[in-house]
Write a structure and sequence with these properties.
This protein has 168 residues and is an alpha+beta fold. It has seven helices and nine strands. The protein has a four-stranded antiparallel β-sheet. Helix 1 crosses helix 2. It starts with a helix and ends with a helix.
């Protein structure tokens, strides 16, 4: 299985799955620059994690948002937590050449063209959580992919943040 499917199944982030694979916590191999996760090994890791901690309710707080990669910004009576990687949180995985250009991309586990990956990455310019109203907000970019609309990328990014918080 791929990293997005594994992350969804384990209720952790894709970055956590990659870290587990790199450290040998789960059995995984790299094929064509992407991790292929052994399902039985992942199931064992999920079982170990379930034994260690009881289920707890999802609480979106400033501390949990900072713990999953947010950056706090306060000015002029505003208090926001910004996220610098909304497309990655939504499920965009890219590999790059040394020049920085995209060499290959997947969107939520499906292979997509490099041009669509650029468009998905540019569909959300900024993503933040406003502590005053307790809501996620986004400033949309100029690009829109045929793979997903800007609104779908925003919804997937917020879901990715909530999944990461639940995994804490």
């Amino acid at each position: 299985m791929n990293t997005i499917t594994a992350a969804t199944e384990a209720h952790v982030t894709v970055a956590t799955i990659r870290t587990w694979a790199r450290r040998g916590v789960i059995a995984a191999t790299k094929a064509a620059g992407r991790w292929v996760i052994n399902a039985a090994s992942l199931a064992r890791r999920i079982a170990i994690g379930a034994m260690k901690r009881p289920a707890r309710p999802l609480t979106v707080t400033i501390d949990t948002l900072l713990a999953v990669g947010g950056n706090r910004w306060q000015r002029g009576g505003m208090d926001r937590i910004y996220f610098s990687n909304p497309a990655e949180l939504a499920g965009l995985e890219t590999s790059h050449y040394k020049s920085g250009n995209i060499a290959g991309a997947t969107w939520q586990g499906e292979s997509i063209s490099n041009s669509q990956a650029y468009k998905l990455a540019g569909s959300i310019d900024k993503l933040w959580y406003d502590t005053a109203d307790g809501q996620f907000h986004a400033r949309f970019g100029y690009d829109e992919s045929r793979e997903a609309s800007r609104a779908e990328v925003f919804t997937a990014a917020v879901t990715g943040i909530r999944t990461a918080i639940a995994a804490l």
